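hey so u asked for the seq, here:
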Amino acid sequence: MSRVCELTGKKAMVGNNVSFSMNKTKRKFNANLMKKRFFIPEEDKWVTLKVSTSALKTINKIGISAMLKKARENGFYK
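ran it, structure tokens below
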């Protein structure tokens, strides 16, 4: 399974490791993802999602229902 947030679409970025002598080698910055269960009261069921920690903060602020609605509009959640 890919390392992509199911609500925001965040995924790994590519950058450089830079040594003291300024040699550059490619590296990957993975998204900070967590597997989390959420209860959706409208559907009266539990859903397990792989979400980024920034998405968790947004869920705490606006709620899981509003976040799912926004993710459906952006095409990240079915």
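The longest strand covers residues 33-40. Residues 64-74 form the longest helix (11 residues).
lmk if thats what u needed
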